[in-house]
Structure formats: C-alpha cells, structure tokens
Amino acid sequence: MNKKLLSLVLVAALAMSLLAGCGSKEEPKATTAAAADTTAAAADNETEAPADTTAAAGDETTAAAAAGGNTTGETIKVGYAQVGHESDWRTANTKNYQDVFSAANGYELSFVDCDNDNAAQLEAVRGFIQQELDYIVIAPIETAGWDTVLQEAQDAGIPVIIADREIDAPDTLYDAWVGTNTKNEGITAANWLAEYLDGKEANILVIEGSVGASATLGRTEGFNEVAAEHSEWKILDSQSGDFTQAGGQEVMESFIKSYEGQFNVVVCQNDNEAYGAMDAMKAANITYGVDGDVILISYDATHDGLQYTLDGAINCNVECNPIQAEVVAGVIQAMATGGSFEKTTLVNDQAFVAPGIESEYATTMTQEILDGRAY
Ligand code: GZL
Ligand code: ZN
User: Fold this and answer.
1) Which residue in 74, 122, 235, 354 is deepest, having the highest Cβ count within 10 Å?
2) Which residues of the chain have pLDDT under 70?
3) What is the DSSP letter of 173?
C-alpha cells in the first residue's frame, strides 16, 4: 500500500474513532474544574500513543469539531499563548484558533500574541494560571525553558497542551501535544532535491527559521541528514531569517554579497522568508524557479507560497499544516468529559512542486489544488 493510501486509511480510522466520540462510555464528569483535576492523572496513565498517529486536520475537521465542540454545558476557558504574528502561517493558525474556540462553540478564549518574545510567553502562561483557566495551550517560541512554568500549571491542576512546535521538557509536565513533524519536512525537501538534481552538484544556501524554534531545528536536522548522503552537495552557509519576509530579504542580500555566482539552491524555512529572498534575488538579477538559475525550496505551503509554486517561482514547497485547533479542541473535549485522548497527535503534511515537475515526494501544483486550500 503506498504511503498516501496508508495515510488516508489511517486518517479514516482515526476519524471513525473520533466519530465514535473520544469520550469513553462513562457519564461526563460533573464540573470541568473537577475533570481538570482528574485529567492530569488520566493523561498520565493513558496508554502511550503510537509515535505517529497522524490526523489530517482537514479530513477529520468535521469529526474533530464535533468532538471538539463543547458539549459540557459550561463555558470552557482556554488560554492560548501564541508565538507571535511573524508569518502568514502564524496568521492562519491564529485565525483557526479564534474560529474554533469561539463563544458560539462554548469557549472563552484568552489569546496572547507573545510577539516572538520568550519572557512574554512565560508571563502569558503565568497569567493563565492566575486567572485559573480550565486549559492552557502553548505554541512554544523556543524549545528550552519550560520545566518551571509547566510544573506551576500542573501544581495548579490546569492541563496543558503543547501545540505546533516542540519543547525540551519531560512529557509528564504536559498533558498532550498536537503538531507537525518538522524533521520529516526537512527530509522531504532534501529527498525531493536529490530526485530533482539526479546526481548533479548542489551549492546550497539556507535561510533558517527563528533561532531555537523546533521548526528550525527539525527542518535543519532532517535536510542535513539527507544532504550528508550526497557528497556532490555543499551547504555554503545558513543563517536565521526569523521566519519573516524582512529577515529573508536581509539574509539573501548578505548571501548574494558573499556567494554571488557560487550557489544554485536556496532553501527558505518558511514562505515569508522565500518572498524576501525572491525580492533580493530579483534586485540582483539572479533568476530562480523552474526557468531560473537557482532552485528555490520553501516550507509552509501557505496560499501565496503555493501561488508562487504554481507560477514556477518556487520549485518545491513543503507543507506544514497550521489548521490544528480542531484537533486541540477534540483533546480538550475528551479531557473535559473524562474521555480518552492521544498524548501525541501529528497533523499531517504533504509537499507540492511546480507544474512540469513529477515527483515521488510531492504533488504537482494545479489551480484546482490552490483553489481548494483551506488557508
Ligand atoms: C511550523 C511553525 C513555523 C512556520 C513559520 O510548525 O511553527 O512558525 O513554519 C511560523 O511560518 O512562523
Ligand atoms: Zn547525491
């Protein structure tokens, strides 16, 4: 069974289990506060989720939204400490949370945009604890520095869900994780490049994401793991563009100063950096994309990123799905009703390539695909 079919089967099975309601057969617990106290324990003795339960948020949105819809009869207070507003991906992720955790759906969302500032994010979480919210969701700016505040949340009996990115902390300090496998995204990008180059040399420049973010670490690790198998590849340089368009442009301008005429591949670890890199290359009369001198790889597959891919300006765009709130709501609903839930849920990703490119690792972009995208 090929990988795509397998993942569809997996998703269907998962959607069925969600339709069956993540709740167990027990009566829903009386009050969310009480449920919150028991869920930490419940989460602990949960059977360890298989490493890669994949949930394509798009496919099981209906079931998850049904499961995530708040049926406890009481408003559920959720805090979301969001990374910031650095990228189109982040904007789509924020909108998704505001749509799902709406008053109409039975939630009261305390949303804090932490503006890529670690101290502000820790402060936001401590604020949620003081407000005695029912659940705390964190999209961690960096992987480090979480043990103390997570212990404080646990001592306060407030379940915590880590979303989007990963943290360096014992998984006993949080109750569930929902996100994407960014190391696989890096591996997919490099596997596609190897297929596309077919043995030809690559002199690669990498514009990395925010320093210390698991998305940066994962994409870099995955890409470099495959790159190490190709002696005909050379990574000339890599610098952080902080997942922003300005950052991408700035780094590309400095790369052009140092490496003009020496590179034929640019990897941008998100679409906004790619937009900045394209501006810088255009200004220096460097051509990129399917008809250009430079192969351009990006991550996120946001709407504009896929438009550039459809236009052939970006050769390969590896998706990272920001639509995760339905899955998080499904986990919270299970916690609130004493149901069972996965400790780890992967939101699935795929990759896209420009028209004219056929690939084992990616789908060739079409207008229909672009028109059918949720973000
Ligand atoms: C990935 C996410 C990253 C995106 C960027 O899971 O954390 O952060 O790739 C965003 O666009 O800024
Ligand atoms: Zn090779």
Assistant:
1) 354
2) 1-68
3) G
Question: Kind and range of the H or E element at 295?
Answer: strand 295-300
Distance 205 CA to ligand 2 centre (A): 17
Q: Please say whether the beta carbons of 320 and 180 come within 8 A.
A: yes
CB neighbours (10 Å) of residue 302?
A: 25
Q: Is 146 in the pocket of ligand 1 (CB under 6 A)?
A: no
Distance 233 CA to ligand 2 centre (A): 7
pLDDT, residue 169, reads 97
User: In this predicted structure, what is the pLDDT of residue 22?
Assistant: 37
Distance CA 109, CA 247 (A): 31
> Does ligand 1 lie within 6 Å of residue 128's CB atom?
no
Residue 232 Cα to ligand 2 midpoint, Å, equals 6
pLDDT score for 31? 32
**From the CB of 164, is ligand 1 less than 6 Å away?**
yes
Phi, psi dihedral angles at 141 (to 5 degrees)? -60, -45
Taking the CA of 190 as reference, the closest ligand is: 2
* 66: its two tokens: 């049904």
pLDDT at 66: 55
What atom of ligand 1 comes closest to residue 322's alpha carbon? 6
- Read off the pTM: 0.83
